[in-house]
Structures are given as structure tokens and as C-alpha cells.
Amino acid sequence: MSERNIRVEPIDRQAVEDQEVEIVERKGIGHPDSICDGVAEAVAGALAREYLDRVGEVLHFNTDETQLVAGEAAPAFGGGEVVDPIYLLIVGRATKRYEGQTIPAETIALRAAREYLSETIPNLEVGEEIVVDVKLGEGSGDLQEVFGEDEVSVPMANDTSYGVGHAPLTETERIIQDAEARLNGEFADENPYLGQDVKLMGKREGDHIDVTVAAAMVDEHVPDMDAYADAVESVREFVEQVAGEHTDRTVDVHVNTADDYEEGSIYLTVTGTSAEQGDDGSVGRGNRANGLITPNRSMSMEATSGKNPVNHIGKIYNLLSTEIAEQVVDDVDDIRDLRVRLLSQIGRPIDQPHVADVHVVTEDGVELGDVQDEIEAIVDEELASVTDITRRVIDGELSTF
Amino acid sequence: MSERNIRVEPIDRQAVEDQEVEIVERKGIGHPDSICDGVAEAVAGALAREYLDRVGEVLHFNTDETQLVAGEAAPAFGGGEVVDPIYLLIVGRATKRYEGQTIPAETIALRAAREYLSETIPNLEVGEEIVVDVKLGEGSGDLQEVFGEDEVSVPMANDTSYGVGHAPLTETERIIQDAEARLNGEFADENPYLGQDVKLMGKREGDHIDVTVAAAMVDEHVPDMDAYADAVESVREFVEQVAGEHTDRTVDVHVNTADDYEEGSIYLTVTGTSAEQGDDGSVGRGNRANGLITPNRSMSMEATSGKNPVNHIGKIYNLLSTEIAEQVVDDVDDIRDLRVRLLSQIGRPIDQPHVADVHVVTEDGVELGDVQDEIEAIVDEELASVTDITRRVIDGELSTF
Amino acid sequence: MSERNIRVEPIDRQAVEDQEVEIVERKGIGHPDSICDGVAEAVAGALAREYLDRVGEVLHFNTDETQLVAGEAAPAFGGGEVVDPIYLLIVGRATKRYEGQTIPAETIALRAAREYLSETIPNLEVGEEIVVDVKLGEGSGDLQEVFGEDEVSVPMANDTSYGVGHAPLTETERIIQDAEARLNGEFADENPYLGQDVKLMGKREGDHIDVTVAAAMVDEHVPDMDAYADAVESVREFVEQVAGEHTDRTVDVHVNTADDYEEGSIYLTVTGTSAEQGDDGSVGRGNRANGLITPNRSMSMEATSGKNPVNHIGKIYNLLSTEIAEQVVDDVDDIRDLRVRLLSQIGRPIDQPHVADVHVVTEDGVELGDVQDEIEAIVDEELASVTDITRRVIDGELSTF
Amino acid sequence: MSERNIRVEPIDRQAVEDQEVEIVERKGIGHPDSICDGVAEAVAGALAREYLDRVGEVLHFNTDETQLVAGEAAPAFGGGEVVDPIYLLIVGRATKRYEGQTIPAETIALRAAREYLSETIPNLEVGEEIVVDVKLGEGSGDLQEVFGEDEVSVPMANDTSYGVGHAPLTETERIIQDAEARLNGEFADENPYLGQDVKLMGKREGDHIDVTVAAAMVDEHVPDMDAYADAVESVREFVEQVAGEHTDRTVDVHVNTADDYEEGSIYLTVTGTSAEQGDDGSVGRGNRANGLITPNRSMSMEATSGKNPVNHIGKIYNLLSTEIAEQVVDDVDDIRDLRVRLLSQIGRPIDQPHVADVHVVTEDGVELGDVQDEIEAIVDEELASVTDITRRVIDGELSTF
Q1: Structural domain count of chain C
Q2: Nearest chain C Cα to B84, which residue?
Q3: Nearest chain D residue (CA) to A130
Q4: D290 lies in the same domain as D274
Q5: C261 with C296, same domain?
């Protein structure tokens, strides 16, 4: 029997899948907010790895405040140009001096940002179409003795905070998540006209799902208006097909609905992201830790990207609660909806949350009592290995947005 | 009978007041995130009024991305100093040229920010302890013919977005809200040692409420450790008293629990905000439009502060849904909990949301049917006067964070 | 007999007063380059005084790199406005940590800049029409033990550098110098339409002098084109009168010659400086240490403003050589032209220059031998009291541009 | 007979070669001031070429204000690292909109800067060890009809300004110039330990020349202190040998004299430039247009680098007067020293200077009258082809610093 304060209770609402109206959104990896999330997390990972490498421990840092100031662009069929560059300011704190060593935190941050951007938004010329600047204040310099190379102790919570996770995803959620991933994966690989800035919103009313896609097209690969129209239609068909794999409900897909072909007002970009023209971005304003924005579910306001994965309890508990929810649903049958909330208490070890409450909707005919022990055991086990989350974040294995 | 798509339904969960665990948070006006919200909204209001004044219409702008980079300070009993200034970057778009006129958007923004900061954080010397910079790209220059001085037409939604509002507030919510307001009001007036950066978290488990307060003390007014301890105790007593006015539940108040007097590690500041030392901030990362962070309720991720109040549907619907919820609860008896969600559809007039759904928990013994028509009528009426929201935002009458 | 290496020799050219063509220029205190010089020097003085005050010694700093990025303005008769603010970046190094004390170098710099700007360019609203930012790297932290409160030792030269000074000023030089001083003094006091950005160029060919003045007018005090024309004419008459006090040569004064009244192209400003519209500036690009640009004389490239007055040899020697030249001409009769050059050698005390060479043109009928000893004695004495220069710079008594 | 106002007169001083004391300085291409000069000029050239390419004319721009804020580095034998990146701000004006076209001036500037830096300071990782930012205001947009692709008209002077040039170089000048060029050329090619930041000062007293070299060594190629000492000695020997090719006077070469091996205080860098650690830089603070700082000669304060080569008279006249001086000395025998000054007058064609005065020292036994006509003819011819200077600057054929 666990000594942890774990509660498993029936949820006090319907499963989201059964609610009448459901809204789900995802900002793709090329959206300005996601760019900031991605850079912040890339910088955090690079710092953590570098600290481990140099001093054997993850020192104090927090880089969860990257700000993007949009540029100005003049896209054109066949290839336009960025007129005023995007400005990206990496903001945060990092330990720069430790036991006589200097640690080049800003240089590390710039390198990580550059590599991340080059890889993620390949049409964006870093240093030319985007200026990357950095302001990292000196961190406290306190040793975080909690996460060294050799031995790992469980750190104390640095704050009263909480995290929340859900599983399983609803059909609409899976459609949005999968469609973005595959648009930015297999589809973009074959169709270079699709930029990384795709934003999807799913709205389900009863058994009908509308998926609205805003997809930035890359002008270099779009010779004319017909090609543009074809590109839009291809995206529509692709998303429709992806949706069909996840639901039997009726689905309508709408792509770039604000276009006005007569006026020549279409969603054409030079770089594949709307950051090039008027859309600013910052960390924590877009997707939650599970990659979605889900107003039907409780969400944490906490920005997960860029935070220190060793002791920032908001980050850890958001990732861990999602992890727990998925693990439970994987291992336990007959769960229709499940929410895990972890609430920390300052000064307690983070594997001992003040309360871990799990709210469950079981399938018809199944009693909560039938699965309660099994769930509790999984939660207990996952909490016991909380530092795995830290390790996986540092290794870049967990997505935070 | 309204032609608007208004649905009034029972909520699919318990009233929050009846849930076992409830968490509520508020970042006070001096918190770095709130500073950004406040500056962004002050800038937006100033721009809107200036546009009205100069061209008779509110032109395109969006200033919802202010970023604060923390400074470094050396507080000391009796008065320390800011060592490295805070850096505040106002980011956004604004129309700078319109029909032959130039509009000094950046100058307006700087003035508004300076005035807001001087008034809100009086111990912070603007231009010396905080550098305020600005990067406003050129807005589209399209005339927003929707909100002129003389006639007001209802604009079309610019996006598919939604807003959500709740009423009535639970006891815990009212405690947190009221305590922050009065700490930063009457209490600070009499006790200048209290800084504006107070952060309150309420956690209710059953019938016990814990209120945790982090209160930045202003060193100039704190001569020594004893005075500090007294200040902390005064805050504690004051919050306890405020709480008592809102609940019969048991309440424990904890102030600056991370202090360690032995180590001299206390929450002392020069300026009254943690932005002076290591705490960065940005817009939309803190309080929701109703001034609270309420994980027990559905929340919108949309940043409300700094957005254009004429046509930014996320801003308008967040404010309007809160307004509607409060109006319903004011006018209709026997409502225990109520959530209003407004979902827009691109291209439809904003007084005609795609759906306005109202979920209600009535008091025991009251049927939803008894109040349904009354609620619908209020919603209908509020939607009809949606442009009032815009007017009140421009006049600075509505708080957005 | 001095042990210093002082050489007094005949100059190898005519006195400048006797040369056929002479050019003299001065950028007034409101010129963008002068603004940078002035801010840099104000910051340096403030830092030096603060160091003395706090630790009893002037610590390492160097702030000679302020950069001004021009704004954009829309001046108009009766009062226009700044559309895009000027951006001023204070750049340099300063000691921020010393023997356990933190010294708020950036805060000090911002305050000094703000005060200097408010006083010098009163029509420029600091924080609204100009953003003042700062990037001061950490200085070396080495104690400069050379200039304490109580005892003053003579520091060693930090570099191989040189300074150069001249006296007496020629008529043309005196006209340019005096005209700028009095335009920005008595004239502006009575005529608020004159901005601080006046630039004067004198060109003498034989016995005719042309003085060309570019004078920024302040729109608030200029109701219309006639008033503007009157203002220009007043400036012209004033400068003509000043010139007449210094010379019997013929003088033509030309004011704002690039104006085109037909086209409405005139030199009207909101703030009194061209920095508001397109004219960038930086330190060391304008006037030399004696306040003039004199191509007929040898000049040092060294920026004098903003440098540390204790040990920066370029600054000290430029000021000291000017001081010496003036002292000699005050005390010794019959000197028509005189140039003092001081060349340092790294590691030698700065009162022992590698060579101090003085080149002299005596009046007709006077032999150099007649005055040589007297000159040498003055040079020797001035060198002996080199630290007076430092003291006077710190006290703000010496102008550096 | 020319209609130009050309005067050829005896100089009113000795030839510099014959003066008793001579000082000459050159900041090598990797010095922070030279980096700024180089970037400013690279940006100017790129803009000019791009304007020609796009609209057939060089539009208004001026980019002569690049500012470099030094970083912080931790060099170490065998390879250290940059801890805080250098910050480089490109400042100026450029036409961004012209006849319906947008011209991506900032993107062009960033690209040019990046390419220049990568080529010139190869050990400096752009975007990682140096952040390049840009603030280019909108230029006036006036068409500069003066310099098109097809026809070239002679522009009017935009200012009253002057340029000055000298020839032939003295021995000391040639030593300094050649030594820097070859250190950064053949020597560095074979000895990668030598960084680009070499600063040379020559001081001649009578027939003895001291050359003081400050040479930044690149740590990656310097394994230990012995290797460092060898590197210093190699530089010394190389400069000694170069000097021997230019003079029969005695020469002493001193390299890195401020080093203190005992203290481990040596001139070791990561990137080959002192900009990495504490040395700020800006345009126009270093070398004059002929690549040297020559206090024995009259110099122009005008920054040549970064200015528009079509109509910026300060730039053109500095380059042209140097060109003329060199041409005269090439073609006319028996000239020992020669100074060319060109003075513009606003509104006159730039091939018609207000006055072109040439001051000459002939060899003993040669009368000025013997060469006067020849000189005048060359000056006349060079003035007639003034637009060649513009063309060659645009093509990057003329060095400006």
C-alpha cells in the first residue's frame, strides 16, 4: 500500500467524448507561439545537457520566456522575400559561473536556437530572415544537487503548483493531433509547398466534426494561383483522410477559409510561418504540455517549455500527469475518460505530491471499484520514478507543446 | 424569441463550490506577468482612444505581447537599490499611417506604459530602474469601419475563437480576489511596506481553505528583521480577516512561507516587484480575463490584455461571457454555478455567435426549466449590446487580467 | 631644470591665422553626435563620482561608445510630434561588483543620461520621444588605486597614445565657438524657437570668412512660414554680430541654406534636434576635445568623451595638452600659434610623458629663445599637476566635446 | 585650362618624412572599430548593388553607424570559448519602398554583415558568438537619379564638407600599412595562431623607428605558454623583416608588450579579436580613408565607411583626394610630400569643388613651377572622372578604412 496520497474517484462530469460540444485546437510547430515554445525548450535541453557534461549536475536555469517579434514579408508566386527580419529574444536566467568555471550560457542558447530553427523551419534563413538575440540573467548559482550524473536524489518541490493530464484522447483530439503531425511529416516531405505553420481547430457538435485548417504555403513552391488552389485542396483531402482513420462521425475539413482569390488575398509565405508577417509569438501562449488546447478539459496555465526539468514542479507535474494518464489507459481496460491532477507542496519531495487525484469515467457496466487498485498502483509506480521525466526531458524525448 | 443560437443546459459536473478539491490563484498587479498584462492593456487603450480622437475610428492594432526581462537588485533594510534595470519590450502591430496622417503609435505606447507603471508600481523609477522599449510593426492600415465615433456597426468575427465566463465566484475565489484587491488597496495605503507584487493561491479541500500569500516587501519601509516579521504578520492577519468575511469554512493563511530568517533569506525588494530580481514576465501567462486562474473551471488560453477591443473576438468573447455570467447570476435566483461559452465563426457578426451555450447548476429544488427562459433573454440582450464591451474597454472600465 | 622630456621648437608651418584657407566646424550640443558625446561624458562623470562616494576610489569603467539611432518625426507649424522614438544605447564597461559591494552601474548610467538629456534638450521628452537603453559589460574589477579620496598617486599610462592641444584660437575658431555657445545660451533663452542642434562651419579664404549655420527650429514656437523666415534671419543677424566682435575681416553668414520655402522644405523640428528624423549619432565622431573640428590643425582621433579620467591616457592628454597650450598663451606674450603634443609610453607615470613637444610660432621680431624657458616651465608645472585634470573632469568642470 | 578652381601651392610645413617626430597607427581588420567599419561598408556596398540591380539606380541610404558591444570570453590554451556573445547593431537609413517595390534592406544588411564577418574573422561563429542586429530607418525615398545603370550624371554636393589625401606615404607609414596587410595575409595563412585583431603603432624619432604591435593570438592554435612565446617572437621577426624592406633606419619591433607571463596575463583570444572581451567598437573611430591614423598630417573626422558612395561628399572627397595624391606622385617626379584637399559647396556639382588645393613639397633643387601644370592637369582629369570613385566603391574595389 502506497504511502503517497493518491485518490481515485469518479469524475464529476461526462466523458468529453460524450459531451455535446467539443473544441480542440493545435498550433503547428511553425506557428509563432510554437516557435517560441520550441526554441525555449531546445535552449533548456541544451543547457541541461551542457551543465551535466561540465559540472556533473544540472545548475539553476529557467528559459521559459522567449519572445518573437514578427517581421514583414513580400511573398510572391515562385518566390518572394522577407523584407524586415523577425526578431527573436531568448529571455531567462542561467548559471554562468560555478565553482570557478564559466559556463557560456548565452552562446549555448544561441547555438541551440539556431540549430532548432534551421531544422524546424528550413525555409527560414537564420541570421538573415530572423535575428536571434539573447538576454539571460545570472541564475542564483545555487547548486541543484538533485540531478547529477551518477546519483539521482528526488528534489523538493520549489513551489505550490499543480499539473494535469488526460487520457485517452477523444476522436477529435486525435484527429487534430495526428493531422498536424502528419501534415508536418509525410505530407510536407512530399509536398514542399506546405509550410510548418499549420493551425488546426476541431469543433465537434454531437456527431459532426468540423476541422478548420490554416496552412501557410511556401511561395517558392507555388508558381501561380492554380497551384495554390491545388495545394489547398490537397491539404484538405489529406486531413479528411486522416480524420477518417480516427472516426466514423461525419467530418468537414475547411482549409484557409479566409482566402479571397479575387482579391489575391491568400495565405502565401516566404518562409512557411506567419511570423514573417505580423504574427508575434511567445512561450506558453499556445499548446499545453500534451500538444493540444482543450477547453473542454481542465488545463494548466503553466508554460511547460523552457523550464528547468529538474525542479520546476509545474513542468514536471504537467508532463508526469499526462504520462500517468496515458499509462493507466494503456494498462487498464474499460476507461472512457481519465484526468490526473498532481498538486505539489513546497518543501516536500516531488515524488510525494500533496495530493494525486485521479478522476475516472469507466465504460458502461464497469465499476470504478473494479479498477481502482490497479490505477492506484500505476500512479504510485509512476510517482516513484518521477526523475525519469527529468531524464527524458533532458534527452529531448518528451515534447512539451 | 431570439434568432441567436443560444443553448441553456444543465452543467455536466458539480458546482465548483461542491467539488472536493478546489484551487484558485491570482497574480497581483505587481507580478511580472501582470505588469505585462497591464502595460499591454494600457497601451491598447491609449491607442484606441488616440485613433478615435484623430481619425474617428479605431484602426488596426494588436499589442498583446509585452515581454519583461527581469533585472537584478540589492535590497537592504531601510532601502537598497536596483543594480541592473528591468527591460520591458512592448511588442505588437499598430497602424502608423492612415489617409495621409502619421500616427505616433510608438510614442503613444511609451507614454501609456510610463504612466501606467508610475501609477501602478510607484516605487519603480521608470527610465532608471526599468528600461521601456518598443517594437510595433506597421499594422495593415485597413480601416476598421466598425467602431467610429458616431455610428457603431457590429463587426464580423476575425477568427474562429471562443470565450468562457463563470459566475458566481466560489468562496475561495472571492477570498483570493478580494484579498488581493484590498491588499493592494486599503492595506497598502496604510502600510507602504507592502509591494504590489502579491501572489495568492487558495486551496480548498472539503471545508478547509489554505491561502498562501507571497508578498514582496519594500525595503525602504522595512528597517530591520523585526519590522519584516511584523509586516508579514500584518499581511497574514489582514488576509485572514478578509477571508472571514467570505466564508464560514476554516481558513489558514500562510505568508512568505519560503522565508528563512536564519539565513536572512526573505522576500524583500526595492521596488515592490520580483521583476527586479530574476522573475521575467509576459502577457497572457497569468490571470485569465476574470482576474483569476481557476483550474477547476474551463479556461481560455487566449491572452485578453493588449488586444484590439473592436474586432478581436477572443478578447471580446472572454469579457462578454464573464459579463453575461455575472448578469445572469445577478438577475436570476437559485443559480449555484453557471458557465457561459461563446464560440465565434469567421465572417459572422460577433453578436451572432456560432453558439452561445450556457451550462447551469441550479440550487436544490429548482428546475432548470424554471429559469431557462429568463437566462436566454439575458444572454440575448447582452449579445445585442456586444459593442458596449468595446466601448468600456476603450474607456478603461473593464479589467482584463 | 625639469627631468621631464620637454621640447620647445619652432613650428614647421605658418600660424593657422596666416594660412590662406582655413576651415573650422562645430557641432552644437543638440547635434546627434554631440548628444552621444554629452551622454557618454555625463555617464562617465556620474560613475566616477559614485565610485568615489561608495568605495573611495574610481574603479574601472569606460563608457565612450553611446550610439544614437534616429527617430522619425512629423514637425508642423505650431507643434508636431515625434512618430517613432529615438533609440539611444549606452555602451561600455563598468565595475559592478567590488569587495562584496554591488554598484548599480546601469542604473547610475540611465539616471545620468536622463538628467543630462532633460537639461540639455528640454523639448525632448525622455522615455517617450527617446528610449534610453544600456549595455554595460562587467569591468575588470581591478582596483584603480590611483585616484582615491584622500591621496592621489600618479597613475601609469595604460597605452601608447598621444594628445594634442592648440592656442590661441584663430578668429574663425573663436567665431564658431562663441557663436554656438551664445546661440545655445542667451539667444535661445530669449528665442525658444531655436533648437539645440545648431551646426556651424566657418571657412576663411584670406580675409573673408563665410559662416554657414544649420539651425534646427522648434515647431511649437514657429506658427508659420513667415515666423520661420524671421527666425532664420534673427539667427543670421545674431551670428553676424558675434562674428563682428571677433574679427575685422569681412564675414558672410548663411543660415539653413538648404531650405526651399516653395517646396515647404525647411529645417523644422519637434524637439530641436535632427536626431528625431534620420540623423544617427555616436561618440567621438564630432567635435574634438577643444570643442572644434579643425582640419588645419593636427587632431587626435581619440574619443575623449566617456572615457575614464583617471587612467585613460588619450582622454587625459587631449585635455591636458589643450590646457597647457592655453596656459602658455595666457602667461607668455608674443605667441602667434602654439601646438602641444603629449606622447605617452605604457607603464611610465603619466606626468612623465615619453615626450612633450611644443611647437611655437612667435610674433614677428620675437625669437623663440626669448620665451623658451618660460614655456618649458609652464609645461613642467602643468605636467606635475596632471591629476588636476582628472579631478576637474570628475567634477564636470571640463568640457570634452 | 580647367574651369575648376584648382590651386597648387607650396606646403607650409616640412615633408612629414623630414619632421623630427612622426606617429602612425593602424587598427587591423579584426580590431573592433575596423570590424564596424568593415561591416558598415559591406552593408553599403550590398545595398548599392542591390538597388542598381532592382531599380537601376542607387537609392538613398546611409549605414555609417554600426555599433559593436563587446562580449566576454574565456580563452584557454588549446581552445577556450566565448561566454557572452558580442552584440553588433547595424544602424542607418535605407530606402525600403520605391515605386511600388519593397526592398528588403534589413535582410540585405544582415546577409552582407554575416558574409563579411565569416570571411574576415573566420574563428568567430556568427549567430552564436556574435549577435548581429539591425535598425535601419526608412530613407527619404527620394530618387537619386544620379547614378543609374546606363547613364551617369554628376550629382550635386549634399553638404559643405571636405576631403583630404596625402602621398607619398612615409617609410613609417608604409611599414605600418604593409606589416598589417601581410600579417593578416601571408603570415596568418601559414600561422593560424595569429588573429585578425592586430594593432600597430609606429613612432619615428629622427632616424629611429619603434613599431609596437598588439597581436591577438587564437587559443585553439596555441597549446601552451611556450607556443605563445614562440608565436609572439615569430610576429616580431616578421614585422622586423617587413620593416627592413621599407627603410634603412634602425627599427625596433615590440609585440604584446603588456603581457606578463608570470601572471599568465597574455593576449590570448578565442576568436582572434578583442571584441570578444571588453573592447567595444564603432564606425569612424579608427583608421582614416587611407587605412592609417596619421597625427602628423591633417585628417578628416568624417567616417568614410558605410556612407552612400553616390552623393555623400565626405566619403567621395576623402577617397578622391587620396586617389589624386597617389596619381600625382605616380606620374610626377620629384615630389617629396603632397596634400590634396577638396572642399565642396552645397548645390554645386561634385566635380566642381569649391576649391581643390594641392600643397606640395618638392625634392631639393626642384621648383614647384616645374611641376605645377602637370599636377593641375592630373587633378583636373581626376575630378572629371569623379563618378569612377562611386563605381569602384560599389564594386568593392576601394578600401575605406
Answers
A1: 3
A2: C106
A3: D107
A4: no
A5: no
